[in-house]
Amino acid sequence: MRAEAALVASAFAVYDSFGFEPLQTPAFEYADALGKFLPDEDRPNVGVFALQDDDEQWLSLRYDLTAPLARYVAENYDGIPKPFRRYQAGSVFRNEKPGPGRFREFTQCDADTVGAGGAVADAEMIMVAAEVARAAGLGDDQYAVRVNNRKLLDGILEASGVANTEEGAMQRLQVLRAIDKLDRLGEDGVEALLGEGREDESGDYTKGAKLNPAGIRAVLGFTTASDPDREVTLATLSGLVGISDRGKAGVDELAEIDRLLTATGFGPERVSFDTSVVRGLGYYTGPVFELELLAEITDRKGRPVRIGSIGGGGRYDDLVSRFRGQAVPATGFSFGVSRFVTALERMDALVAAAQPPVLITVFDRALLPNYFQLASELRAAGIRAEVFTGSGNVTKQLKYADRRGVTLAVLIGSDEAAAGEVTIKDLVLGAEMAKAIETNEEWKSARPAQQTVSRDQAVATIRDMMSE
């Protein structure tokens, strides 16, 4: 929880520095407001938790933070500044089978700009994603933001004869899903999904997009058109889209993004153009991007683990428009908090957790005012402190301290109180020293990692011991 809160706070600081404002939308929305915008356009109302209220209206727990934002903007459109720039973190819910890294409830952290058309807002959102990675503690060699434009693929498909009809829209969705599996299935697997279909190792068969051979070659050529040099990629794409107006518009938008990124120091080592990025969600309409981890990560057995994409976003101009019946451009960035934290943990890149509290043990309940007074002084000095409020002798209290990960414990009995002293035990150092002590006599003579100081020096001594 501390790691996730720290990550969200870091992201919020980035969003705030770019001029975004916080917003909180409710966990429940009317189901018809969400069903249109689920990731699989051909499976509306699947994947959400839904119920009927007393008026027999269907309510659903939010699937993401974007559709509720679109509803909020549409509902308050005339009273909010445009562009409307907001950030938010909160739980989202998926009615799916849970598995490793997949949960029915998890936290997302988003930033969005609604009401700004053109590639300028997209370029800014890409900068935000890269800055969030830095704010999380990653070096520039540990992550990359990979950018593409859905208009480019539309142009390729247009040139390949895929009709701009309802049937063609389904075919385009199948093409996007196929490309999205490039990392997992390789070029041969994607080629099969672009054609007639593919049977996996379990025997399950997935129908293909049924592109003609020329269309398959064009799409596969598109997915491998990337170059580390963004200008080279742009030149290659200009040739691939041919005379398609939509394809040319996609190239022009990437060129504008490149111009702004270059001017602000976001070089190709941080942000690259990658035509294999499509983002599986059906509502993206223009530039899309993914934040990917590049660091080598291993599991507990030392085997390499590929984390891959931990966040992403893009332009989704149709989302608010469906509520209002008028064009409302929008673009955004989102990452899953738990997934990001898990990746940071495996990379040993987590920000250090808060220090455990100093435990003030209770020798004598008559001295409770003394214990709480010392605890207050420690807190005033910025040190976490806890008076043991349970029951049990000091031995039990020190076992409790061990389970809490406490490093320092304070002991004040009647003798110490009468003498105006406190005893401070370094439990970690004491445990290490105890391993080398074999007899009870040695233990009594060593008094490992324990010191007695005057009461008025207690706070300063504890601060010094914590800084060692």
Automatic annotation (TrEMBL):
<dbReference type="InterPro" id="IPR045864">
    <property type="entry name" value="aa-tRNA-synth_II/BPL/LPL"/>
</dbReference>
<dbReference type="InterPro" id="IPR015807">
    <property type="entry name" value="His-tRNA-ligase"/>
</dbReference>
<comment type="similarity">
    <text>Belongs to the class-II aminoacyl-tRNA synthetase family.</text>
</comment>
<dbReference type="Pfam" id="PF03129">
    <property type="entry name" value="HGTP_anticodon"/>
</dbReference>
<dbReference type="InterPro" id="IPR004154">
    <property type="entry name" value="Anticodon-bd"/>
</dbReference>
<protein>
    <recommendedName>
        <fullName>Histidine--tRNA ligase</fullName>
        <ecNumber>6.1.1.21</ecNumber>
    </recommendedName>
</protein>
<keyword id="KW-0067">ATP-binding</keyword>
<keyword id="KW-0436">Ligase</keyword>
<keyword id="KW-0030">Aminoacyl-tRNA synthetase</keyword>
<dbReference type="GO" id="GO:0016874">
    <property type="term" value="F:ligase activity"/>
</dbReference>
<feature type="domain" description="Aminoacyl-transfer RNA synthetases class-II family profile">
    <location>
        <begin position="1"/>
        <end position="369"/>
    </location>
</feature>
<keyword id="KW-0963">Cytoplasm</keyword>
<comment type="subunit">
    <text>Homodimer.</text>
</comment>
<dbReference type="Pfam" id="PF13393">
    <property type="entry name" value="tRNA-synt_His"/>
</dbReference>
<dbReference type="InterPro" id="IPR004516">
    <property type="entry name" value="HisRS/HisZ"/>
</dbReference>
<keyword id="KW-0547">Nucleotide-binding</keyword>
<dbReference type="InterPro" id="IPR036621">
    <property type="entry name" value="Anticodon-bd_dom_sf"/>
</dbReference>
<keyword id="KW-0648">Protein biosynthesis</keyword>
<dbReference type="InterPro" id="IPR006195">
    <property type="entry name" value="aa-tRNA-synth_II"/>
</dbReference>
<dbReference type="InterPro" id="IPR041715">
    <property type="entry name" value="HisRS-like_core"/>
</dbReference>
<dbReference type="InterPro" id="IPR033656">
    <property type="entry name" value="HisRS_anticodon"/>
</dbReference>
